[in-house]
Amino acid sequence: MSGSIPFYQKQHRHYDRCYRSKEVESAVSQYQSSSSSYATRSRASASLSASRGLSASYSGLEESRLSPIPKRAKPTYLAMDKENQIIGYVMPIFRGSQEYASGLSDTEEARMKESAGYMARRNLFTSGLEMERTEQTSRKVSTRQSAEHISLSKRIYENEEYHKCMNEDSLMHAPEFVIKPRSHTVWEKQCVRLHCTVSGWPDPRVVWYKNNVTIDPMARPGKYKLQSSYNMHSLEIDRCDFDDTAQYRVSAMNSRGELSTFASVVVKRFKGEVEEALPMPRHGIVSEYGITFETHIVDGFGVSFGREGETMSLGAMVIISPNLARYQPMVQWYRDDVLLQPSKWCQMLWSGDKATLTLTHLNKEDEGLYTLRITTKTKYETYSAYVFVRDADAEVEGAPGAPLDVTCQDANKDYVIVTWKQPAVDGGNSILGYFVDRCEVGTTHWSQCNDTPIKFARFPVTGLVEGRSYTFRVRAVNKSGMSRPSRTSEVVAAMDPADRMRMRGTSAPWTGQIIVTEEEPAEGVVPGRPKELEVTEATKNYVVLSWKPPGERGHEGIMYYVEKCVSGTDSWQRVNTEIPVKSPRYALFDLAEGKAYRFRVRCCNSAGVGEPSEATEATTVGDKLDIPSAPGRVVPTRNTDTSVVVSWEASRNAKELVGYYIEASIVGSNTFEPCNNKPVKATRFVCHGLVTGESYVFRVKALNAAGLSECSQESEAIKVKAAIASPTPPYGISVLECVRDSMVLAWKQPTFIGGADITGYFVDYREVINGVPGKWHEANVKAVSDRAYRVSDLKENRKYQFQVRAANMAGVGIPSLPSETFICEEWTIAVPGPPHDLQVTEVRANTLVLVFKPPVYQGRDPVNGFYVDIKEADAEEEAWRGVNEKAISTNYMKIKILKEGETYVFRVRAQNKAGVGKASEPTEPVLAETKPGTTEIVVDIDDDGVISMNFACSNLTSDSKFVWSKNYKEITDETRITVTTSGEKSKAIFNMPAEDDIGIYSCAVTHTNGESSSYTLSAEELKKLLEISHDHKFPIIPLKTELAVELQEKGRVRFWLQAEKISANGKIEYVFNDNTLSQGEKYKMNFNKDTGVIEMIMESLLQGDEGTFTFQLQDGKATNQSSLVLIGEVFKGLQKESEFMCEEWHRKQGPHFVEYLSYEVTPECCVFLKCKVGNIKKETVALWYKDGREVKGDGNLTFTEGVLNLEIAQISKKDAGVYEIVMKDDRGKDTSTLNLTDQGFRDLMNEMFSHIANSSTALKIQSTEEGIRLYSFVSYYNEALQVTWHHKDSAIAFTDRIKSGVVGEQLWLQIIEPTEKDKGKYAIEFHDGKGGLKRTVELAGQAFDDAYAEFQRLKAAAIAERNRARVAGGLPDVVTIQELKALNLTCNISGDPVPEVVWLKNEREMVSDDHYIMKFESGKYASFTITTVNTTDSGKYSILVKNKYGTESADFTISVFSPDSKK
Fold it and tell me: What's the CA gap between 464 and 590, in Å, rounded?
């Protein structure tokens, strides 16, 4: 059989089904034996089909595995012996030969699989038809062919129906590891290979990681080799070394999800092969490589608070020593002891020295205890802190918080149970229920699974499509609205769990054998009864059934029918009549609450419906799970200054308890807020984020799937403050002095004092003999308060060790580590011992104060000074440097050389005459920074003059105290200073401030982070404070203005002053010449309490009012006064001005002049007399007078808008005079006079001359035929204007050669026949009675040359014009004469020299004869005579005269007529 049918084709679905029919099997075998001729003719096509069928076989297997329709059971790949013991893997040949068949890429391979499957099916189902057309067969053969044809047609139909049911979604599924990588332990320099087999559709993308860091083969070429072929993936590590020891992770990812698996590689070394670079093994914890790694987590993350939707990062610095360049520790993050894996919700980063976890989108599921675990080859280190996540703001006010921890359980082909946890916040109203939403992977559409809200926190979702993947979310609802949706669940696929297990494959130990098996076909059988039917869950909304498939079901898939009947009856009703159930789980809805039902299940397949299962017991529809009872007694306990530990008794008889919610409320607020938003299962929880100093009460609620319990009883109120604990051990024990039988020890205060003041210290000592320490002995029975103590009764030259314990209210702490071994021998050195008890206070960005105690051992001479040294905390010992060059005598020093942000340490050395002694122990590192909220001491002086220093601190704890010091010694004697404290403020009051109080005052607050400040009271500062204090004791009412006087309307006199600050209870006394004045007709007093203005008004000043006026002020104990002296000329002047203002007021009751008569000269040199009047009406008249005579109106008088004008257009001397204007009506009259005579008129003219001068243009040069002219234009010229011409800064004396004059508005200076002496600077000066105005021009150089040349040209032109020949006149234009008459014309001729005269007729020269007689006599007279005129004499005649200067002609026309023609 194997020779006729290729073995790989047996795996095809079509052939598997053919062999299940014996008739078809016989027909096919006979057909194959008689078809050799056809096989010969189709050899080429058969070989092609065989080669393609090889690829198609694998595709067919995958389709069989992923098909959603019933199918044969998958064959096992384990080889068994007779005792059913596993002896090896069974590798199907087609699977092993696939690598032979193709060397294509994944894309090409998928394409070839599809094409090969199609070709194989086509060739298989069409071969019978082709053979029937090409061969003639016998009747027997024809019968066999007919049977084959029928069988194959049926197979084609079934194949088509199968592919109609197939779709891409049913094929797609998340990655599954068929074979996982195994862990390996190898020797150094060997190679190791990790491999795995992955299934999934689409084909997953595989990534390898080392300690959660992606492996990049290109980063270290040749070290790593990655291979992927046909879903088999491998990682090969070449020549392994120590750094390759790690955890390796392989991650497979496609569109349906991601899956990871892990394997470890350990690299070992042969004994004795230790590299020289590594340290030799030593006792203690030593790694297998000879290196012990020390891990320290510093700068860790604290308790953190976030809100849903925000991003949060947790990080910590990690110090690993020794620091190997290529060594990478294993960095892991845990939440509530569950290892976190990288996902879209959390991202992890290791930068070599810092581990960071980023929560990209906070949800309440992210709340919990986060732990960072750093694992090295020798040990691990952890660091933990809690993260709290608050609800995001509700989209609808009053809506509940979102549910959390949505998970999917018991997933099957069409069914899944969704569970969740109820939120802690209900929005103030009870939650009515929950809605479950689902979304198919690959889409964004959410559909609601339940129509009505369900209160149970578990819900079975049915109606899923087999083979598809889903995610779920839940929303809570109350009467206010819907909550935000929860975080989506993990992706879950709707498929049979058995199929899922088969897809994952089975692992077995490798035996080195590959066994090929074949499956025998099985006949279809009717399935048997389902087994173990039970009701797994029953609520009032639904009932869930579960069962196991029957043992007898054949290889075909089965489905189920569920039946129910009411208890007590035998009437069974099928529940899922239309659609059989594919999963062995089913949820029944719409059952009558309170009724009892029984249930049973039947199996079915293509062979029929099986017998029903055993019926269940009667189940009553209703909630079986009760809401838990309220938790018991709640006990809060102090923890830190912002947290409280809450413990409670667990709920009794609680079933399926999910956890507890804790709520807190400030006493008196009656408002409870959740402390946790994720349930905790323990009965103890630390509530963080509380307000220090507030009192809280707590209550607890339990929850399970049925709901939340009632709240527990409220706890007792507890005030939030740090719990008191015993202090940690002191440290830094040193010797300050040593004599023969005693030693003085010093030590440093514990880093943690336990939340209460240290009450004292206990010192123990022990003797060390030959390096072996003895028993401890108490050095003091009574606690010592100082950090120094003399241990007595020691033995000289013996060795001792010491330890110190600190004590507080909580008890005595554990002892410190034993000190170094000290020898008890007397010190004889000359220099002093080390100072001790160094304290740093008042730390700021650039300064701090160092306080210390002097050395116990003085040396030979007393200590006379101290030196302070400083260095950066991380600097070497050689970096110590002195702060002060000159020794200080005080035991404190303010250091001012710090750099902000730098960390320093300090030490002190003492000196005496012998020299400088040993340095003290250094301080702890101090960061130079000004902490937020830092305050300083403020000096205040109250109203009673009491001087006080005030200091406030907002970071107080309940145990904090204000400690005041003078010169850094605590003030215990209140003789000079009294200290009072109230709340967050403390005040130090000076009792009797004096020079004894000069010094540095400081205030420190205990149980804080170094809150302190100081104030220096110097002699100058004390003097200033005393002056202010005196002013406060004997206060003076401050005045903005002293007493002043001013005149008001009607000449009233106002005395006034303004106080800067005076209360409404202030009193004022008005005094005149020691006599108190009172309110009356003469004196009007007023006090404006809002503005502090105090005034007294008198109607007028009389002769008896001369003297001193005083205002006396009193406001409580504050007083002041101000006086004003009015005597002599001051009084008379004020009195006169008052009388004038009174008269003015009366004058203004009628028409009056607001502005008296004045004049104005316009730029056009017009003069306006104007005045402004007020209080006028229509009847008011204005009369103008000049020199007592009324000026008649001539149109120049205007009277509009209270302004009167009189225009004088061209003023002259005749306009001088006294002008007067009178305003009058029935109310009275007013007069204004303007004197424009003498000086008044001159002033007016000078103002006009000033306008003229300002309007003048710049001097310009003009050449004339006579010489050179200088000129300037003005806008208006007045004959009274006086100007002076200057040449070279001297006034010009006018002569016949130099003249000046005025033509219109032009003022000119004429220089006739200029010479070289006339060169220079010329100026015209306008006189206006003031400074005048000059206009200048420079007549020299080129300007003079050009002007002189132009003068010569014009002069020559003028001479030529005067002497040229010309006809002066006498000739008519036309002469009309009668024929035969005589004509005589005469004209004058001028010119020098005497011109020549020529007569022309019709432009032809004429010659004198008897008919034409032409004469020129005396060189002046020319005559033209025609003795007898005839008609031929008619024409145009001209006389032409010329000499050397020019020529001129005159024309005339003679018209001759005869008497006859005229008639």
Answer: 19
Residues 490/471, Cβ–Cβ less than 8 Å: yes
CA separation for the pair 1425, 1383 (Å, rounded): 5
Q: E strand or H helix at 139, and its extent?
A: helix 139-165
Contact status, residue 376 vs residue 382, Cβ threshold 8 Å: no
Cα(1214)–Cα(1191) distance, rounded to whole angstroms?
14
Instruction: Quick: pLDDT tens for 1341-1384.
Output: 998 999 899 888 888 888 888 888 888 877 888 888 888 889 89
Judge contact between 184 and 244, C-beta under 8 A: no
- For the residues of 1064-1126, what is the DSSP string, one character each? TT-EEEEEETTEEE-SSSSEEEEEETTTTEEEEEES---GGG-EEEEEEEEETTEEEEEEEEE
Helices (H) then strands (E): counts for the chain: 14, 102
Q: Which of 400, 299, 398, 311 is nearest to 361 (CA)?
A: 311
Handedness of CA 582, 587, 590, 596 (dihedral sign): positive
The position carrying tokens 């000078």 is 1246
Dihedral sign for Cα 480, 485, 486, 492, please: positive
Bond before 1393 cis per omega within 30 degrees: yes
Q: How far apart are CA 349 and CA 333, in angstroms?
A: 11
pLDDT in tens, 56-67: 333 333 333 333
pLDDT digits 0-9 by tens, 906-916: 999 999 999 99
Is the Cα dihedral 1130, 1135, 1140, 1144 positive or negative? positive
Q: What is the DSSP letter of 705?
A: T
Take residue 586 and report the two structure tokens written for it: 């089913």
Residue 838: is its pLDDT beyond 60?
yes
Q: How far is CA 564 from CA 571, 576, 588, in A?
A: 8, 10, 10
Least confident of 87-96, 305-314, 855-864, 962-971: 87-96
77: pLDDT strictly greater than 90 = no
What burial class does residue 773 get, using C-beta atoms within 10 Å of its C-beta: 0-12 exposed, 13-18 middle, 19+ buried? Answer: middle
Query: 307: pLDDT confidence band, cut at 50, 70 and 90?
Result: very high
For residues 962-977, average pLDDT: 92
SS3 of 1135-1192: the string is HHHHHHHHHHHHHCCCCEEEEEEEEEECCCCCEEEEEEEECCCCCCEEEEEECCEECC
Phi/psi of residue 757, nearest 5 degrees: -60, 145
Residues 429, 445 contacting (CB under 8 angstroms) = no
C-alpha to C-alpha distances, 931 to 895, 954, 1011, 1229, nearest whole angstrom: 17, 12, 9, 83
Judge contact between 1402 and 1352, C-beta under 8 A. no
Provide φ and ψ at 1317, rounded to 5°: -70, -20
Q: Which of 214, 297, 205 is nearest to 249 (CA)?
A: 214
Which residue type does 242 have? F
The string of pLDDT tens digits covering residues 268-294 is 875 444 333 333 333 333 344 456 778
Of the candidate ranges 144-148, 768-772, 939-943, 1110-1114, the one whose mean pLDDT is the lowest: 144-148
Residues 6+ apart with CB under 8 A from 252: 175, 177, 198, 200, 204, 205, 206, 258, 259, 260
Q: Which pLDDT belongs to residue 634?
A: 93
CB neighbour list of residue 1352: distance below 8 Å, 6 or more residues apart: none
Residue 71 has pLDDT above 50, yes or no: no
Out of 44-58, 633-647, 1163-1177, 1351-1365, pick the least confident.
44-58
Mean pLDDT of the chain: 82
Q: What is the DSSP string of 827-849?
A: ---SS----EEEEEES--SS-EE
Q: Record the tokens describing residue 112, joined without a space.
A: 């070839």
Q: What is the reported pLDDT for 1008?
A: 86
289/269 Cα distance (integer angstroms):
8
Tell me if 415 sits within 8 A of 583, measured CB to CB: yes
